[in-house]
Amino acid sequence: MAEGEGATAREPSLEALAEPGGQFEEIAVDAPLVGIVMGSKSDLPAMEAAEKELQERGIRCEVRVMSAHREPDKVADYARNARMRGLRVIIAGAGLSAALPGVVAAHSELPVIGVPLTTRTSVAGGLDALLSITQMPPGVPVACVGIDSARNAAVLAARILAA
Length: 163
Prior knowledge:
By secondary structure, the protein is α/β, with parallel strands linked by helices. The protein has one domain: Rossmann fold (3-Layer(aba) Sandwich). Helices cover 34% and strands 15% of the residues. The longest helix has 13 residues, at 44-56. The model is unreliable at 1-10 (pLDDT under 50).
């Protein structure tokens, strides 16, 4: 077909091809904006409050279970690829040593909100998890909400998205 003869498809510009994902920027996608991760399936009842709050606010989210101790590569891959997949905030709930929020924050530039969770073996009602989440090394910031306060984490995520 000669140039200009009824061609309807337009090839992406060189600028769009040079920018990773550039040709997809204008395509509307229903990708989740918030990732909710937790270290164990037993954390799901506590973390459902975050999912419910986000859904009530019309904020798309995804829920995943992954352990920083048993699946460190899976956690690192999730965190590294989160922005590319459209996430803007990650909420990470964990009990006991509560390593998950810090590991996620170490592998992502996205804001990470840690939710310390109580478990049947928690020390001082979840104080162990709270201290683990708040004591991060320089350059690895993790916001932290109260013990078992997944709903507050979702409220904070909504405020971050609105900023």
